[in-house]
Design brief:
The complex is a heterodimer of chains A (384) and B (345).
Chain A: E1 6-7, H1 18-24, H2 40-59, E2 67-70, H3 73-84, E3 87-91, H4 96-102, E4 107-110, H5 120-126, E5 131-135, H6 149-165, E6 173-177, H7 189-192, E7 196-200, E8 211-215, H8 241-279, E9 284-286, E10 296-300, H9 306-315, E11 318-319, H10 325-330, H11 335-339, H12 344-347, E12 350-354, H13 361-383
Parallel strand pairs in A: 1-11, 3-4, 3-5, 5-6, 6-7
Antiparallel strand pairs in A: 2-8, 7-8, 9-10, 10-12
Helix pairs in contact in A: 1-8, 2-8, 3-4, 5-6, 8-13, 9-13
Chain B: E1 3-7, H1 12-23, E2 27-34, H2 47-61, E3 64-69, H3 71-87, H4 94-113, E4 118-120, E5 125-128, E6 131-134, H5 151-155, E7 157-158, H6 166-175, H7 197-201, E8 210-214, E9 220-224, E10 247-252, E11 257-261, E12 270-281, E13 289-294, E14 302-309, E15 312-322, E16 329-334, E17 337-344
Parallel strand pairs in B: 1-2, 1-4, 2-3, 4-7, 8-11
Antiparallel strand pairs in B: 5-6, 6-17, 8-9, 10-11, 12-15, 12-17, 13-14, 13-16, 14-15, 16-17
Classes of the chains: A alpha/beta (384), B alpha/beta (345).
Amino acid sequence: MINELLYLDHAAATPLDARVLKVMQPYYTDQFFNPSSPYVLALTVRHDYEAAKQTIAQTIGAKGDELVMTAGATESINLAFNSIGGHVVTANIEHHAVLAAAKRYDHTIISSDEKGIVSADAVRLAIRADTRLVSIALANNELGTIQPLRDIATVIHDEREKRRQVGDTTPIYLHSDASQGAGQLDIHVSRLGVDLLTLNAGKVYGPKQVGLLWASSHVVLNAQIVGGGQERGLRSGTENVAGVVGFAKAMELADVHRKYESERLRTLRDELQQKLTTTFEDAVVSGSQKRRLPSHLHISFPGLDAERLIFALEMRGVMVATGSACAANKGTRSHVLTAINLPPEVADGSLRLTLGHLSTEETIAKAGAIIIEEIVRERERLTK
Amino acid sequence: MTKVYVGMSGGVDSSLTAALLKEQGYDVTGVYMKNWTKDLPGMKCPWADDLADAKRVAVQLGIDFKVFDFENEYKHKVVDYMIDEYKAGRTPNPDIMCNQEVKFKIFLETALEDGADLIATGHYARAEDGVLKMATDTNKDQTYFLYRVTGAALKKTLFPLGEYTKPTVRDMAKARGLFTAGKKDSQGICFVGKVGIREFLSQYVEQVPGEIIDKKSGKTLGHHDGAIFYTLGQRHGLDLGGGLPYYVVGKDMGKNEVYVTTDLNDETLWKDTVQLKAVHWINDAPAAGVYTIRIRHRATLTNADLSFDESRAKLTIHDQQRAIASGQSVVIYRDDVCLGGGIVL
């Protein structure tokens, strides 16, 4: 039944994979034990939990004991910022979780270019002698644009080298929220060149409220939640065993299917984009076409009210987003679209279409046809 | 085609109002009036969901939709009025003020300027050529809240729900598949929201503790957080311990004292004459004589003699009425016609 949904909002939430649910279930029932308890059944649970962390670590080229499991990506981001603090650098297209965390510290917010890309040069110019943290997402959640993390890592590396030469011991780290691209991009930490990485199970067909912060061994983290000393004392609270086991399964599946799934989504997305842009010549596709997640299509229909369109589409079973979900709720224009200088009359007619497991040749064709019909209907209403 | 602007709040009543007018062949535009709301820490703006619901229904009906921002006007004319009245020790009715100043004044004016021929709302009332009449559903009738509207405004107003009962309205909304058909009715004063009037007021007035005094014995029975939070006839919130319930029978704003009694027949609780100020007539002022009146929304209609004393109106009520507080409105009817009313001195 879920497979028949015309769901084009995978960037907001992904359905739990049946295989993930299956491995999680025992930890809610037969294997409910607290991993810290002394009896053998509990020790088994503890072992499974550690093994799951190890599995997750392997998918990003890290070690299990370098992970701090959190309740989602926002907590992970907060842990990163609140551990390192100091002067921080981030970009104006970042997720609210990053922007809000940055604003608690002395911060510099750099501008993305009009294609939704944050340049390494802009990062270089923003770094000060007291900068301790740079945080740039791997892929933007609204536009899907993929950031040049490797180049930014080089900038950080150069700065670190410069400080070392003059005997300045102020550390500088690169953090990246890779929640959005994890199912499609290489997220091997050493290849990305990051020092800290945030991931979110809820975006890769795993459970919601499960995430992690990976930090390389030279980064010192400070606990935000204290108590029984779980997660090496960095995040107390009884372990979410089922959630983490599910996260591990989701990451394993993502790892296996990444290449195939990326190609599949790219083909479907390109077809959809083609169909919409040929039908509506004034449609504006935002975000770099070269550096974009295969799942994302951000498209604007100038003069249309996207919110109306969303309600009209929903009545026909098509679920899409405009800007980010949070921005829609506040009745304000998306900060990302403002950041890339999209004119208001274009921005207000924007749809974010994000593909994923529920996207098939058939559902995309159906959804595309309905989107076209509803846009035509809205335009007719406006010209009457 | 006659152009009607419908005030859409995101509730079932105004949703059906828009649907019915469209079916009747009007050129309908939905308008959400953005009124003032208090931002409460940690809460997402509460009106966003209502606005989205209103818009959803507009899209469902295929009608135009606009947002009119009346935040400033609402704050000055309705919210400030309410706070000032409470500060003066009176019991105001902000909904009446909202209809007088916002819905049937600024909204009407703005809509007409924008090209509308008429406005419409989801009130349970009937307007016939500038005359305000009670709704067919006497249990739901909202003319009490509308008595300060002008006849001229009513001539430009449609109340399509005046002929229906609330259950019928829900059924009709359901039958049309309106998104808001099952939505709960809003409770209380919109801008006060879930926190309640007491908590709302306490953000604007200093809480000054005072004494609660037994009117008969003169003894102090306990303490309160401020006389302004109490109204005549009030039973709850006195927190005086067990025994017979106490009722507020008066207060002295100067001394910040609240007087209470256990005597249900206390003379100040029961009145048979009231003086009205700020008297408003929807059309021509009626002659002195016997009319029916209503002292609060949904109160039983009762007979009273209306007489005039210069600018003030006086009512001599045939059956004594309980707890008529200063600041509240008394509305005057002749049969099913709402003539107007005034505010208790």
